[in-house]
């Protein structure tokens, strides 16, 4: 069964998309920890991020870097934190979280 994030890729369900290319997608988390909390995913359907091929994983991080630099301009903050959790949605992703204190990444 396709994951909820596959349905976002195919536009079956809506999301606030912030960046996209042929292989990757970034969109706002539906339940954000802070304003601007984004999820960055590969379009390849793989459950867990560390099961991605090295190439796709490297591309995901390069795409996430571009998103993070844009996010840092849009949302004033000290740093863009990045986190890998993957306990809820079985589709590889990273969280990008605008942060001013460690409390901002309090999942
Ligand atoms: P994780 O799998 O890393 O534990 O968490 C998955 C994240 O996906 C959560 O922060 C949750 O709020 C977010 N999420 C779950 N379902 C949806 C959805 O349908 N749309 C969006 N935009 N985010 C979602």
UniProtKB/TrEMBL annotation:
It comes from the Bacteria. Residues 4-107 form the HIT domain. A motif (Histidine triad motif) lies at residues 91-95. Signal peptide: none annotated. This is HIT family protein. The chain holds residues 1 to 107 of 132 of the full protein.
């Amino acid at each position: 069964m396709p994951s909820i994030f596959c349905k976002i890729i195919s536009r079956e369900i809506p999301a606030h998309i912030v960046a996209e290319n042929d292989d990757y997608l970034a969109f706002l988390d539906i339940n954000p920890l802070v304003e601007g909390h984004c999820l960055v995913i590969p379009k390849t359907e793989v459950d867990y991020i560390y099961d991605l091929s090295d190439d796709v994983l490297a591309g995901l991080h390069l795409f996430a870097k571009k998103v993070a630099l844009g996010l840092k301009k849009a949302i004033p903050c000290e740093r863009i934190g990045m986190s890998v959790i993957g306990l809820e949605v079985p589709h590889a992703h990273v969280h990008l979280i605008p942060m001013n204190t460690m409390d901002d990444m309090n999942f």
